[in-house]
Amino acid sequence: MCPQPWLIGVKRRTLDYVEFERPSELLDMIESKSWPYKTNREFYGCRDRALISLLYLTCGRISEVLSLTKKQFVFDEDPDFIIIKNMVVVKRKKKTKRKRRSIRDEVPLPKSGPLSPFTHFVTEYLTILRDPEVKLFKFGRHRAWQIVRFITGKWCHYFRSQGESWYGKIFSNIFALKDFVGVVDASTLSDYVKTDWKDYRDRILGRPQS
């Protein structure tokens, strides 16, 4: 299969040597620069920050984030989270190399805590949009790649991997993390979930769980 025209000559990125950053460092990265739009700079800057924030918060593939519409965001169901409903997951089967679609029923965006500034970028953009049926981002993968690259110097999947790394510290069970981020093979997340036996010391000793 031939690569997309805009990928010709672009070296394939690898996460083998990626340094995983704190949320505050990623926030600085997103805020450090904006595309020099000739018109509506405030609107497009807000949109671009929301795009990168969603890649990080949802651990979504770029095609999954680009498919989101405003009506999928529920603000009043949970006091601590904005919930994205029915987020499409595009999974690739290794044997056939064909993609199949499934659904993540709920993806939470925290209203407080270390990730809340990214949620704020998303809500800031959502308040501007009027039509709940229209996709949040009216462009394709090529344009998304350009935006992320220009603003951060990184690529789209970089922010997905950063999100997986962050949530890996929360979901110590690799299968729970697998379901949360929507991947087929749990082994692909092995680098993000590190278990320390000391976390289970009370169970080993037969003590009651706190």
Summarize the structure.
The protein is of the alpha+beta class and 210 residues long. The protein has eight helices and three strands, in the order H-H-H-E-E-E-H-H-H-H-H.
Question: What does this protein look like?
Answer:
This protein is an alpha+beta fold. Helices cover 38% and strands 12% of the residues. The chain has helices at 23-31, 41-58, 62-66, 116-126, 141-152, 156-168, 174-181, 201-204; strands at 73-74, 81-92, 99-110. It has a three-stranded antiparallel sheet. A hairpin with a 6-residue loop joins strand 2 and strand 3 (99-110). The longest helix has 18 residues, at 41-58. The N and C termini lie far apart (54 Å). Residues 6-12 have low confidence and may be disordered.
- Name the helix and strand elements from N-terminus to C-terminus, one letter apiece: HHHEEEHHHHH
On the 0-100 scale, what is the average pLDDT?
83
Oligomeric state of shown chains = single chain
Radius of gyration: 18 Å
- Strand adjacency order, main sheet: 1-2-3
Structural class: alpha+beta
Number of domains: 1
Helix content: 25-40%
CATH superfamily membership:
Intergrase catalytic core
CATH topology: hpI Integrase, Chain A
* First-last Cα distance: 54 Å
Separate helix tally: 8
CATH hierarchy class name = Mainly Alpha
| CATH second-level architecture | Orthogonal Bundle
What form results from the Cα inertia axes? globular
Low-confidence stretches: 6-12
Q: How many individual β-strands?
A: 3
